[in-house]
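WARN no homologs supplied; continuing
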Amino acid sequence: MSLDSSFLHRAGCWFLASGIVEPSGGVARYRHIEQKRNLPVSTEITGYAVSTFSYLYRRTGEQKYLDASVHCAQFLTRQAWNPDLQTFPFETAPGSPAYFFDCGIIVRGILSVYRLTHDREILNIAQQAGRTMARDFLTPAAIHPVIALPSREPLPYEKRWSREPGCFLLKSAMAWKNLGMELYWRTALKQALTNDPPFLPGAAEPEKIMDRLHAYCYYLEGLLAEPGCPECAAALRIGIPRTAGYLHEIAPQFARSDVYAQLLRIRFYADAFGIQPMDRVAAEQEAAAIASFQYTTNNSALNGGFCFGRRAGHFLPFVNPVSSAFSLQALDLWSQYCDGKFKPDLDALI
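OK structure emitted
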């Protein structure tokens, strides 16, 4: 499958011109199309946007992307960061809790800027946040997903994947590996491998299984950080076709663009690391599915962004920064792969 090479430019323009990034540098969770409004700013989503702008700068060399990455990173380090508690709340509103997952995504995002700017302020906060993630969330048995602030008490677990411990937290634990905090990373990896088998399907309803695939792909992404580990490689060799099987079975009813994009990105790295050879036919089908979610319209609030998903073949009314970030990167990596130019760089994985 050949791609229209404008997809990356149009996706970058959506991030810059759609209004999803507020003047403060904070990024809205998503845009509700029917209601013509953005949801409130999310620190986690801002972290993803920082990583995305850094990636776009590295791929294009265009200064506007570096400027946007720095601007969003400064929102996180100067407005969202709570220096007294040394953590990133879920939102900047008083009383907001803190999520382990969000903190890890933010740390990985601001580290992507540090690699470009060598700004010590960013590195210092990333290091403080990494230590705080261990202090507040990590236990020998599990990682608490959410804590109350300012008490730092773990909130009761709930029967939904984002509010209970699970293997998906390994994606954010990669922040510890990025920071050289190896002991914390090893603890998280061991816990994730233990939590893997029961995570899927984890629900009876197809739509809930699709949502859990999104989380399960976070786990598979985290495993890529240890390509030489036989246990991690074995889990990837099982997890990739397992994810693809559920995705393609459920997609006619409900499909998320981010799951397609996450799965395709994992395929590239697993192939490059010698873990699992590329299934070229499946990858081509997944790339085509991802491309079909990108908006082409005169509406600047939508054009170039990627829809969150489809239900029974119809777009859902959400254009989503995370879906757009994963999708633009997956399609860009597909282009690189087809040209024989893909080189695995986990620091660049949004």
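Residues 57 and 332 are 13 Å apart (CA to CA).
OK
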